[in-house]
């Protein structure tokens, strides 16, 4: 039986992109917990062998999916480019919008932390991550607020602020859907109030 040459076979590139898009669609629609390799293969209308062939591991696939999702956070990242805003306001608005976007995808904040070994696996990967996260713009805003010139100290401050803002989101996303029993123990205020309180104490 001969192949009909008029029917185009999907290329490796098309298949790989379909797998990635299926992963992103599953995360957007149902959360990270539903992004199993089997569900991804079914969504992409392919098989597990091809998913493994193109990505090697679920971690690598989820890492690329997280990167693709973050690229859609334009509303948050664009704030960092707006030099007409005071630096503290830029930073507050960025983190507020960034956290609002993270909350749309259950488990994404934790997944981003879990991908740190991929981010640090090579200089190229780290450079891509820094560019995607507008790291230089975040450091610039912190430098304008504090007057600090030491790059290592600015990086330390960026990590401290990021951790203080994101860790509560991770804690909340790890709780059962019915959080009633936890409210007396861990019931954080709205993210705007958290960031205001943090900045008032950090940038005094």
Written description of the protein model:
This protein is mainly α and 204 residues long. It folds into two domains: 12-69, Arc Repressor Mutant, subunit A (Orthogonal Bundle); 73-202. 67% of the residues lie in helices and 0% in strands. The protein has helices at 12-30, 37-43, 48-55, 58-70, 74-77, 87-103, 108-114, 116-119, 123-132, 135-146, 151-173, 191-202. The longest helix has 23 residues, at 151-173. It starts with 11 loop residues before the first helix and ends with a helix. Mean pLDDT is 82; it is low at 1-9.
**Separate helix tally:** 12
Helical fraction: 55-70%
The mean pLDDT is: 82
What quaternary form is this? single chain
Cα gyration radius (Å):
20 Å
Instruction: Summarize the biggest pleated sheet.
Output: none
Beta-strand percentage?
A: under 5%
H/E series: HHHHHHHHHHHH
Which residues sit in consecutive blocks of at least 5 with pLDDT less than 50? Answer: 1-9
The count of β-strands is: 0
Helix/strand-derived category reads mainly alpha
Query: What distance lies between the first and last C-alpha atoms, to the nearest angstrom?
Result: 77 Å
Q: Provide the domain count.
A: 2
Principal-axes geometry comes out as globular
């Amino acid at each position: 039986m001969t192949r009909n040459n008029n029917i185009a076979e999907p290329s490796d590139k098309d298949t790989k992109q379909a797998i990635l898009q299926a992963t992103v669609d599953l995360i957007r629609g149902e959360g990270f917990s539903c992004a199993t390799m089997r569900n991804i293969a079914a969504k992409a209308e392919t098989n597990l062998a091809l998913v493994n062939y193109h990505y090697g591991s679920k971690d690598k696939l989820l890492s690329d999916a997280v990167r693709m999702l973050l690229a859609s956070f334009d509303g948050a990242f664009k704030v960092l480019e707006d030099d007409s805003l005071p630096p503290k306001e830029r930073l507050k608005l960025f983190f507020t919008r960034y956290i609002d976007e993270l909350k749309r995808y259950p488990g994404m904040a934790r997944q981003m932390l879990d991908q740190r070994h991929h981010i640090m696996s090579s200089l190229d990967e780290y450079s891509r991550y820094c560019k995607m996260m507008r790291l230089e713009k975040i450091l610039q805003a912190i430098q304008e607020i504090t007057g600090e010139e030491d790059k290592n100290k600015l990086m330390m401050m960026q990590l401290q602020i990021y951790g203080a803002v994101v860790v509560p989101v991770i804690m909340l996303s790890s709780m059962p859907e019915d959080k009633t029993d936890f409210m007396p123990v861990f019931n954080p205020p709205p993210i705007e109030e958290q960031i205001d309180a943090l900045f008032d104490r950090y940038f005094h």
